[in-house]
């Protein structure tokens, strides 16, 4: 019986959306995969036409990858969304067909083209000292974020198809840029839907701010060169972002005040 389909959403439990052979294959040695993977067919959006994606069940104007064994097609962005979502939830997937589980490798000409940008740094627009790092994965042709998460000591590992996607990912998940938050002040990151009007303190210098987002943005701008990674002075827990540290202090060390 065919699996029930529904639109692919980041908040879904997506474990029913792919062949679980990809979970097992993610643990294979890197030198095993090239010899046992099939070359995936890459179809540009212009030629893809109304091809339906096996993940979102929609035909959209997007680049498509087609399995050489079962002929199932998936949007490049949908496959990246699936793999990044599962990686964040502790279930990394090998690059392959979500429908039948066969391992894939990128066409050699595409891999060679993408390899030209291997291990370069790209600057963001926030400041000259802020850079994001990535590496080129020869198997999938994707760009892999190599930001090391202080909380785990492991690289992020999320994969994207183009540089702009990697940059946006880094700005969203690894930086604390000044954007508007729910309380209307300059903040470090988009709000979580709950306005926070209570004042809080900078965990480094003790300066007082009107909201946790503003405190985190201040830390990112003023303290990250000398005080990275964000670390709780009370329990020595390391965090990936200053906003996480500020929230931790308010919830676990409520008596924290300016020195």
TrEMBL record:
SUPFAM superfamilies cross-referenced by the UniProt entry: FYVE/PHD zinc finger
Domain of life: Eukaryota
Name of the protein in question: Uncharacterized protein
Naturally occurring in which organism (per UniProt): Aspergillus indologenus CBS 114.80
